Predict the 3D structure of the following.
Amino acid sequence: MEPVIIGDATLYCADARKVLPLLRGTADCVVSDVPYLLTSGGGGSMAAWRVAKGYNNNGKIVRCEITFREFLPLIYAACAADADAYLMADSRNIVELMSSALKAGFRDHNLLVWDKGNVTPNRWYMKGCEFTAYVYKGKARGINDPSSPSLHRFPNPVGSKVHPTQKPVALMREYIRQSTRPGDIVLDPFMGSGTTGVAALELGRRFVGVEIDENHFRVACDRMAQNPVGVSGAQEDLFGSAVG
């Protein structure tokens, strides 16, 4: 399981459940649009969790097998002694996500709202927001700009996405700038097309990303190669031989 090193980014094309135990106690901040079940029922067999989380794939909903209870304890263990985590979900899953995060050992800071600037059709009010469980491990630390609101308005990159559930770089950059300092390690165990990594490198943070889908992994590598230096410019594995 050799990582790809791009400047201050260490990237794994692998199952996060296999990589996270190798990263114990290292991440200063986790920022991730984690896998979750979009809906229940419907035709067809359950697809692998790695495909995506609830996006429409050729007319049918793709679902995920991995659960919050399975991966949140692994994320918690990968965090440093004092660390923040930003974990995204939709309105149907945010309560279960938060509950599972607390059971894994995290403590609650706040519930953040992302106003996407577009809506998803729904019979019970059209949905224009997603949610982020802002939790922490260890000592509670204030954000870098305490005057910031919990509602964030960043346009959804509709029409220009390289991943079905891609988030705006500006949103991930906001989370990272609030809870880290230059040189800190940001972790995204479900990095998709690498948006969190792009934001982390732009801010001079180190980044560790994991993605199981080979196509999305290649896209993530290409995006981060456009800004590979980050803070140190060192072309080396952040964790040495421990993850070789």
Remarks:
- The longest helix spans residues 214-225.
- Residues 39-63, 240-244 have pLDDT under 50 and may be disordered.
- The longest strand covers residues 107-120.
- The helical segments are 16-19, 68-78, 94-104, 169-179, 195-202, 214-225.
